[in-house]
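Revision sheet: structure tokens.
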Amino acid sequence: MVLACISVAGDKSRPQAEKLLTDAEKLTDIRLPGSTPFRLKAHFLGNMDKGQTYEATYLLEWNSPTSWRDEFKATDFEEVRVAHGDRLLISRHPSTPVAEVFRLHELIDFPVYFELAPSLKVERLSERQTQGTQQRVVDVSVRGRPWTKVYLDSSQPLVNRIEMKGALSGPQYPFNDFESTWEFEDYREFHEHQFPRKLSFRNSSSLEARIEVLELVDADSHAAEFDPPADAHWIHWCPHPQPPKYARTEDRLPLLPPPQFRAGAPAVHAQIYGIIATDGLWHNLTVLKSGGESVDSYFLKQLTAEKFTPAHCGDTPVEFENVLGLGYRP
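Predicted:
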């Protein structure tokens, strides 16, 4: 995850901070237009509820930002995706996805990009001793509140760790620490780029997902396109869309506890998959991990009431797949 093109508080630090983040993006993005076609193999390990683990293999064959094929295989699920111009063709068995595949996509698409709202600002660029090494740290705030810390190598523009607050909300969600952490380790050179061989995500210091890159080599062939599976369906797509936005402030899912919960009730969590279609509404909403019938019903009802300006590729609206982690912490 690299933060780019954001305003910096303080004229003296602005050029240095912007250049550092831009250089980090260029150095680590092996998927830039014109880059060398490659094949990447990886092992994925996810930690699920009750100490269970989820393992999968991943293969990506990449020709260009709009021509690639990837494959996710686990014992209970398989997904094949093929990018072909402005279409992303998807085959899944079973048809309902698993949350872990979206966590893998988020990590393996390093550097990860996300929309930077006007309220986001870099507060300062500093150097500090952390975990036994000297690192550069970019502090980012949202609406004046601390939000993200980006840790970079002291000598190279390489992102080692990103820490993010768990939520932006009212007093019922008192996230005082930077709970969500992305870590990138064991960088190695690939055609004048640097790419981490170990990528992981932690929540509240608990390891939730880890990827180990087993192979990153030149592609065997430079095929113009890849053949999708016969049963694949497609969605409108592009490599870096403008994410969907709430059409109005009142359309946003309220961060309030479900009314059936009382003070002192245990924390509840649910994961829900859906697609924000070109009409700006959620479609195909599916509960992947249940928080209980009443919890699921409450959040599904809230989601169906949301209205968005859909994701866009330039002026063209596109579909946007997502898995939402929803919960209530009394």
